[in-house]
Design goal:
CATH topology: Four Helix Bundle (Hemerythrin (Met), subunit A)
CATH architecture: Up-down Bundle
Number of domains: 1
CATH class: Mainly Alpha
Distance between the termini: 11 Å
Order of helices and strands: HHHH
């Protein structure tokens, strides 16, 4: 999980934030399906953009970076580069799903 965003919070607030982090992680499979099954590049970019922002807010910088990289490629010319970026994102999401 992400580290530092809770370090300076009171323990009760930290506990509440951790609940939100767990909800975020639990929702990642649905977010991934939204990205993977997007009907067009605009929908995909939008889903990736939302994931990028929320991942950073919850302390999951690596997910945010992967989503940002894929978002930048989603409207470009290289389908192969986008596919690779999406594989990396899927892998990172999978790692968070492991117990």
């Amino acid at each position: 999980m992400g580290a530092a965003p809770t370090d300076d919070l009171p323990s009760e607030t930290r506990a509440q934030f951790m609940v939100l982090q767990r909800r975020f992680v639990a929702g990642l499979p649905l977010r991934w399906l939204e990205i993977r099954d997007a009907p067009d590049s605009l929908s995909m970019r939008s889903a990736l953009h939302r994931l990028c922002g929320s991942a950073g807010s919850y302390g999951f910088e690596r997910i945010g970076q992967c989503a940002r990289a894929a978002e930048a490629l989603a409207s470009g010319e290289s389908a192969a580069a986008l596919a690779q970026a999406l594989r990396v994102l899927e892998t990172e999401i999978g790692l968070l799903q492991q117990p």
